[in-house]
Design goal:
The complex is a heterodimer of chains A (98) and B (96). Chain A is mainly β. Chain A contains one helix and five strands. Chain A has one domain: SH3 type barrels (Roll). In chain A, 6% of the residues lie in helices and 52% in strands. Chain A starts with 10 loop residues before the first helix and ends in a 5-residue tail after the last strand. Chain B has a five-stranded antiparallel beta sheet with strand order 4-3-2-1-5, with no helix packed on it. With 96 residues, chain B is mainly beta. Classes of the chains: A mainly beta (98), B mainly beta (96).
Chain lengths: 98, 96
Amino acid sequence: MDPSSSGIQEPFDLIRLSLSERVFVKLRGDRQLTGILHAYDGHMNLILSDVEETIMIVDVDDENVTAGSKTVNVAKRKMDMLFVRGDGVILVSPPSRT
Amino acid sequence: MEDDNSPPPPPEQQPPPPPSHTGSPTDFLKGVVGKRVIVRLTSGVDYRGILSCLDGYMNIALEQTEEHVNGAVTNRYGDAFIRGNNVLYISADEPL
């Protein structure tokens, strides 16, 4: 296959090149992680360290249900070391290159 | 209301754009590598970017990615890996 400009030949190369880097991970359930990527496998199970999880909690305002007004609460938590089960992963991005 | 000056119908309708591509889904995917694509996930979120590559699970690597939710850009990523199970479709965003 024709290697693209960045020299990536399969999607997992993008993950391999992000080892030991801080990555952004979008998870199911409106959750996001940033952390240092230590290991991954073909399921996209991940080992991350120095992790911050951001949880988007959307509450529909009871008084204004018809207006569809929502309040978005953001919860954050930090974890030293984390195993992420691969089936929850939607997207992984090395944020440093954005 | 007969009007002699009414223009005759154009002798030849503009031909509909011919199917520029025939072939298998795999041929399509090979054709869009390196092109701008729209990847829609089952959640309804769109990712627009340049398709770097993809694999048999439909895991996708995108460059210059914009995340669109309800038509608004919600995030940008220089590179993005999308796990294949979330993909609903891949649409070519430029002529093949």
